[in-house]
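Section 5: illustrative case.
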């Protein structure tokens, strides 16, 4: 049944995606290590080979989709024939399912069972045209393509190419500096529609749209006509929309140093909760650029509050993400492994 299902999908999707069926772990390894594939779609879940294939996909940056085909229904888990296999494979299968971008159920009963199991909250229901007349093969494949698109429109930062990353940095630098003269001869790249689309999706998810458009204006680039307002994406369970620094700390401060200290305290709390976002860095840089700061007093205050190293590492993060100039920094930047960890927290905020 699974083989017929996959064959049907391969035929129906031939004009939309490169769909390459693989039947053994060796074939999957060869495929993933030879070419880059966006998605590994695993059908079934009780073979240890599936878990090994999923682990390999994780290492090479291929996203995982799993269709259990009913193999996680409660009555199967209770079957005596699985009792010997479960201790050996349950841990691996659970990890694979937790790390998958989405689990595809083939009916409401399976959806409810997977939801009750609680291993992965991202569950989609796409009925199987081989076993029900309530959906056509064409509609089944269309729904699956929609899920694939949703997978690739999630955490787009990690599917951007290097050119798109550089363009993001350039646009953010232009937005914070407000003048092209600060760009030190850097020139914008020519992006495809798909690359612009990724930038706008990322900007929407991280509340950077206004900054992106400001950067486009400063660089005098014609803004592409791309609407991502209806794009669907998956988010990690810990995701929450960005709350601006101003919203969090308010505006009642005696001077800019007091406000900046409150800013660093708030960003430290976000770092601890792994909720530090790119838009916070842009907001921090703009605050530094636009206000007079008593640098000696700030350094002393940061030391008293045990925030000196953290603030210096944030300057290192700004130097990386927006090419913030050293001469503008109120405290010297630190670039070390802890700085890299801060960068990773920011770039992994949307990671499944």
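Designed sequence:
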């Amino acid at each position: 049944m699974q083989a017929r299902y996959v064959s049907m999908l391969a035929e129906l999707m031939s004009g939309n995606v490169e769909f390459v069926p693989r039947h053994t772990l060796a074939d999957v390894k060869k495929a993933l290590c030879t070419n880059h594939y966006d998605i590994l779609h695993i059908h079934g879940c009780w073979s240890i080979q599936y878990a090994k294939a999923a682990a390999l996909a994780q290492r090479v940056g291929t996203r995982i989709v799993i269709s259990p085909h009913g193999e996680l229904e409660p009555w199967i888990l209770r079957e005596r024939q699985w009792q010997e296999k479960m201790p050996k494979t349950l841990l691996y299968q659970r990890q694979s399912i937790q790390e998958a971008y989405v689990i595809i159920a083939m009916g409401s009963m399976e959806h409810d069972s997977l939801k009750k199991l609680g291993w992965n909250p991202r569950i989609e229901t796409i009925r199987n045209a081989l076993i029900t007349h309530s959906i056509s093969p064409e509609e089944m494949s269309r729904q699956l393509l929609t899920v694939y698109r949703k997978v690739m429109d999630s955490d787009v930062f990690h599917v951007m190419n290097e050119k798109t990353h550089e363009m993001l940095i350039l646009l953010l630098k232009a937005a914070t500096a407000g003048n092209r003269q600060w760009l030190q001869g850097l020139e914008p790249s020519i992006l495809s529609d798909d690359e612009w689309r990724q930038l706008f999706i990322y900007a929407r998810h991280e509340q950077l749209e206004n900054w992106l458009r400001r950067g486009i204006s400063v660089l005098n680039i014609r803004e592409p006509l791309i609407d991502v307002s209806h794009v669907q994406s998956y988010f990690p369970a810990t995701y929450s929309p960005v709350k601006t620094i101003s919203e969090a700390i308010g505006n009642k401060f005696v001077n800019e140093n007091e406000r900046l200290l409150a800013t660093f305290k708030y960003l430290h709390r976000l770092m601890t909760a792994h909720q530090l976002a790119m838009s916070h860095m842009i907001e921090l840089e703009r605050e530094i650029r636009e206000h007079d700061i008593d640098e000696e007093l700030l350094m002393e205050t940061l030391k008293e509050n045990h925030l000196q190293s953290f603030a210096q590492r944030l300057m290192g993060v700004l130097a990386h993400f927006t090419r913030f100039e050293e001469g503008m920094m109120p405290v010297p930047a630190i670039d070390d492994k802890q700085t890299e960890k801060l960068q990773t927290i920011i770039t992994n905020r949307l990671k499944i």
